[in-house]
Amino acid sequence: MSELIDIGMPRLSDSMEEATVQTWLKKPGDRVSRGEPLVEVETDKATVVYESELDGMLEEIVVAEGQTAELGALIARLRPEAGEQPAAAPAATKPADATAGGTNRREDGEVEFREAVRQALDEELERDERVIFFGEDVAVAGGVFAVTTGLHEKYGPKRVFDTPISELALTGAAYGAAITGLRPVVEIMFGDFLALSMDSIINQMTKYWFLTGERYGCPVVIRSVVGAGGRFGAIHSQMPASWLMGITGLKIAAPATSADAKGLLKAAIRDDNPVVFLEHKRLYPLKGGVESEPVPLGRARVAREGTDVTLVSAMKGVHDCLEAADRLATEGVSAEVIDLRTLRPLDLETVMASVVKTNRIAVVEEGPLTGGWAGEVLALVTEEGLGDLDDAWRITTPNSPIPYSPPLEDVFLPGADRITADVLGRR
What we know:
By secondary structure, the chain is an alpha/beta fold.
């Protein structure tokens, strides 16, 4: 039988000494999949859900619900499936869904989404000494989702550093750094908190190029974790893309793969004007190949070719569409899947080329029906290609806050089941 893997209480803040297990989402004997929510832990910052690092079975719970343990202390044991190995150091020293920087590679060259982000930051910090990186718990702790481990140790506290908890102060500092010669990357821990930094984004960063007569840019990248599916509740699970779509001068990157996580982030850091870089928390464990070169902003990709219907999405929605396309194929429906990659600028040309071929389009957005970017895509497609359309519709979340309850959250989201049913229902 495979050896048991220790799961330890993670360190998410240099100020933390202990944390409390709030809720175990699995019980001993339950099978868990890599990336599946495992336990809720209450820290000095918030209640955070940790995900399984491996496929296997939860063998033993050591720290019960309501009990507190020191950082690094054993809280549970997992029996991995045959052939599964922990991605980095023993799990008792890190979050269950985390891996130390630079270690979560596979021998076939694939890396996790989170590692692809870290690689992009590492390579751009090394390439250009003007690049700096800061945010809440991104340095010493390596980030709440263990994306930025090792960067503080490698580049030192002048280029990678932690900040107080103030999103407005973070973006204000990034704006000041950018217009005085640096190229800051700032992390807003959860996309929900972008609302606290909107003044700096809307009234300062995105207007600077215009107000200086196109003489100077404002090279800021704002990284932020977004999306539901992790049982984080209504104010840690939102998708703020629709809040940002109407901000002139702002680019919005929304990668779905490891390759694009790395390539788009490198392009964003090299861009001379502000980019919001959205990282869906449910994609962090996904693996894929990566390259060293930037991926240009504003170019979509055809993730799967088809002839009967075009499915357009971004981030996790792309994977939901691909799964739906597999199911639709068994029903005789050939679905083409378009990964937008960036929501602004939007690659209408690639979308229209697909619509001309299929004559039907469904836009899948993890976000409310009203005011979402899916409506913008459909408006543009209608304006440019009404004569090519036989059907067009949106598949989104309801106009309500995101529920915390796992079964309610699953139903709330526009996953593969709903996409498949919608397409088949409109044949």
